[in-house]
Write a structure and sequence with these properties.
- It contains 6 helices and 10 strands.
- The protein is α/β, with parallel strands linked by helices.
- Helix 3 runs parallel beside helix 5 and helix 4 crosses helix 5 (150-162).
Amino acid sequence: MDSAAAAISCTGVTKTYGSGQSRVTALRGVDLEVRAGELLMLVGPSGCGKTTLISVAAGILDHDEGECLVFGQDLKAMPQSRRTALRGRTIGFVFQAFNLLPTLTAAENVAIPLLINGMGRREAVDRGRAMLDRVSIGDRWRDIPSRLSGGQQQRVAIARALVHDPKLVVCDEPTSSLDHETGHRVMDLMREVAVGPDRTLVVVTHDARIFEFADRIARMDDGRIVEIREGTRIEQD
């Protein structure tokens, strides 16, 4: 695939933390291309580098060596202000812990990416309410996170990740704390709302129950991509 046409193109990417005896190598020359328009799941044992890799790809962390392009652009080479602006327009995040602001309503939480991108508050909150409708929680738009269930908070987090119409959506363990039925509903929603020809979804997961939703599954181990398979033909751990 032409790396300029790929959503993510990583070549020889390395990343270490710490120094001396505390030095930990998280990525050991990762090669990975994520196709535009696909849902790719990144799987593997805890500590194998999955979260580090998506953090590098999303421009949250800088890698040490190699190259990682996002829609043909090298985020590491950009000034921090330009990188932040591009990330704010192009990338949506669903964090494992949701990271909702406790004093804001659901609609206000969803509106945050729009506000960061300069939209007026009233319009941003209105769009936040509309996105909450799309994830079937529009009737709770006035509620703060503590008044919502875990599943409802997750839907708010998904709505926030999608409200600014990003080209790349990155999810870290989106179903880890959910039961089977709720996890499948969340993935149905992600496929419906987040996957299309102009949007790419990368999901880090240990949850073999949702492998069926993937277009491709990339397995990591010890800081490397060791296998990529189409669909659900990967064996469960």
